[in-house]
Design brief:
With 465 residues, the chain is of the alpha/beta class. The longest helix is centred in the middle third of the chain and has 25 residues. The N and C termini lie far apart (53 Å).
Length: 465
């Protein structure tokens, strides 16, 4: 039994006791040929298997769930360093597929590591959460109390229907649970320690694994980090400010680039005109802003310019959507990892005003705003409560972040670095976009050197754009 004092301390730090060693152990993975990818003409290069884990880690003897795992073996087995688990984030990405296309990593990393990915709960072949909804949703930027109430009612029904359709995994899919699953994968692989690279939402998986199982980490790269300590105000406001910062970088690029569709024009003035053209159709305006924000991930500056120019001329773009089950999985994951509950229209109005104050150009981040509105239909406290990073047992961790990132603001990387200054080192990519590792030789070399040697830079460093 955990003592009362220890239990209280664990709750205060946000670290939950690991239960994976409490009389339960996974079976070794039986590797087989991977199923063909219908979207690829080439056969998969690797091997696949499954790991069976408890549905509820608090009841390791209860029902179980099967997790899909894939592995691409080290190309130089004589000099193999171990396993590199990789998670693409999303949430919603199937990381087993990522492991089967290891060209993301340098030849040196592929030579020395088995690259392994597993589909976290609710994704890919691990109990995919899929929510069908044929009802046209209301705008997620309600203009008054009645619209807010209608949006809440819609969200409540959507979440309720989605949960009913996807039980039992829907109630057991937060990132804290996935961190326990990742240690089960480690044990099934027969590895004493693992290396890990997480991107975007995958960095939260890495953080929580380092909190729960820090002594099982050989090396860890967190590329474009989530900040699990962010409340709803910072979750919305930090991303709103970041979107505006990236937009200013776009405007500066357009001013100096003759091929930009808006070169020689007042970019901000044309953007304001584009927003005014769509003022009469609020959902249409949201779609334009959403397309621009998603183009910032690359960034694809040329498309941003064309979208703005076309919209200002009365030709708004086709909506951009994520290709995985991001919309379906948000209530089961994001709404359980972050406390994004909004009590009433008064609180919403205050939060929206702060979004517009911190991001007046793009008018807030459609990403974080959409996630918060998706949580309107979720009741009760989050299953995986947000908290500051607490990793006393973890080795030195390398943080990567672009200075201008619309999805995981640079402020969040700084926050993580400040929360765990003793065992984090920050590499700043002095450019725009989401995701840093493959940006240029500087970013790749720094991350590769760390993964291969476990040596981080002696001080925080930066790489030029």
């Amino acid at each position: 039994m955990w003592g009362t004092v220890l239990a209280s301390a664990l709750l205060l730090t946000g670290v939950t006791p690991a239960v994976a060693d409490a009389g339960w152990s996974p079976s070794p993975i039986a590797w087989t040929t991977c199923p063909d990818d219908p979207d690829s003409p080439d056969p998969p290069d690797g091997e696949c298997g499954t790991v069976r884990v408890p549905l509820d880690w608090n009841r390791p003897g209860g029902p179980t769930i099967s997790l899909a795992v894939a592995r691409h073996r080290a190309t130089d087995p004589a000099h193999r360093l171990g396993v590199l688990l990789a998670d693409l984030g999303g949430p919603g990405s199937a990381s087993s597929e990522f492991a089967l296309t290891p060209g993301f990593f340098s030849p040196e990393v592929q030579a020395r590591f088995d690259v392994v990915g597993f589909d976290v709960r609710g994704t890919g072949r691990s109990g995919l959460i899929d929510c069908e909804n044929s009802v046209e949703p209301p705008s997620d930027e309600p203009a008054g109390r009645a619209e807010f109430d209608a949006l809440r009612e819609y969200s409540e029904k959507t979440v309720s229907d989605c949960r009913a359709r996807n039980l039992p995994v829907f109630d057991h899919a937060d990132t804290g649970v996935n961190a326990e699953d990742m240690d089960a994968v480690r044990r099934a692989l027969g590895e004493a320690r693992i290396s890990f690279l997480g991107i975007s939402y995958g960095t939260l998986l890495g953080q929580q694994y380092a909190e729960k199982h820090g002594d099982r980490v050989r090396a860890m790269v967190l590329d474009s980090s989530m900040d699990h300590s962010a409340g709803v105000g910072r979750f919305l406001g930090d991303r709103a400010a970041a979107a505006d910062e990236v937009f200013r970088q776009f405007a500066a690029w357009c001013d100096r680039t003759t091929t930009c569709a808006l070169h020689g024009q007042d970019v901000l003035a044309v953007w304001r005109k584009a927003l005014k053209v769509t003022d009469g159709t609020p959902k249409g305006q949201i779609e334009v802003r959403d397309r621009v924000v998603k183009d910032m991930y690359g960034p694809d500056w040329d498309d941003v310019a064309q979208v703005i120019a076309g919209t200002a001329a009365g030709h708004p773009p086709v909506t951009a959507h994520f290709t995985y089950n991001y919309a379906s999985i948000r209530p089961a994951v994001v709404c359980q990892d972050f406390d994004l509950r909004i009590r009433d229209f008064a609180q919403y109005s205050a939060l929206r005003a702060e979004e517009l104050h911190r991001g007046p150009i793009v008018r807030g981040s459609t990403l974080s705003h959409g996630e918060a509105m998706a949580c309107l239909g979720v009741h009760g406290p989050p299953a995986n409560p947000p908290h500051r990073l607490n990793i006393p047992r973890a080795p030195q961790i390398l943080l990567l972040n672009a200075r201008y990132d619309p999805a995981t603001p640079y402020a969040w990387a700084l926050a993580l670095h400040h929360q765990a200054p003793a065992n984090t080192t920050l590499l700043t990519y002095e450019g725009s976009g989401h995701g840093v590792y493959p940006r240029n030789p500087c970013t790749r070399a720094a991350a590769d050197h760390y993964l291969l040697t476990r040596e981080t830079p002696r001080h925080d460093v930066s790489c030029p754009a």
